[in-house]
Design goal:
The chain is α+β, with helices and mostly antiparallel strands and 209 residues long. The chain has helices spanning 10-25, 29-45, 124-127; strands at residues 59-61, 66-74, 83-90, 97-99, 104-112, 130-136, 141-148, 155-157, 164-165, 170-174, 178-185, 189-190, 197-198, 204-207.
């Protein structure tokens, strides 16, 4: 059975577990409480639960857990025409593993260094450090951005150009608070609204035409 913890979390979890045990053995109870609390928080943060992936081939699933904060028409240099951007804000208590919204091939990946503004801000989509993947299923192209936030300082993207992915498959994560933007073609039947809470890989945010 797969342990529901993202592999990238163990570099934080294991040292904290050792420190907690050492402080307990030395009867440093205040330090035990401090490191024990951090151990529990980091273990919880890097949880990676399995998800039930919708089977409808036209469904677009959420690339991340969190709250929908914007749904706006927008152009992006990686896209040839206007798209609709759906922005999802992830707080530190959300699952931070990201999933691809549709099945397809990675056409391109981009990484842009930038600022660390509040990820819920509109300007975060343009100015913050971010990693993008361009995903094509043979008919449509969808863009997904992992965006660093005020606290997040590390974006992890495992996807490489030419890789094939299935809907809901994990492609990366962001550490400690962030945002995920998904750009869908205009005319997509969008099934979420600003303020909705979504789950990565299982919540349907729209349907392809």
């Amino acid at each position: 059975m797969r342990i529901p913890i993202a592999n990238e979390g163990y570099m934080f979890i294991l040292p904290l577990a050792v420190l907690t045990g050492a402080c307990w053995a030395l009867s440093w109870f205040w330090a035990t409480g401090l490191f024990g609390g951090l151990f529990l928080f980091v273990t919880w943060f890097f949880r990676d639960p399995e998800r039930s992936i919708p089977e409808d081939p036209k469904s677009i699933v959420s690339p991340g857990d969190g709250k929908v904060v914007e749904i706006v028409p927008e152009k992006d240099p990686l896209l040839e025409e206007s798209y609709t951007r759906i922005s999802i804000f992830l707080n530190v208590f959300n699952v931070h593993v990201n999933r691809v919204p549709i099945s397809g091939k990675i056409q391109a990946t981009r990484y842009n260094p930038g600022k660390f503004l509040n990820a819920a801000s509109h300007k975060a989509s343009l100015d913050n450090e971010q990693s993008a993947i361009l995903l094509n299923n043979g008919h449509v192209t969808i863009l997904v951005k992992q965006i660093a936030g005020l606290i997040a300082r590390r974006i992890v993207c495992w996807a490489k150009e030419g890789d094939e992915y299935e809907r809901g498959q994990r492609f990366g994560l962001i550490r400690f608070g962030s945002r995920v933007d998904i750009f869908v073609p205009e005319g997509t039947e969008i099934k979420v609204a600003v303020g909705d809470i979504v789950s990565g890989g299982s919540s349907i945010i729209g349907f392809l035409k």
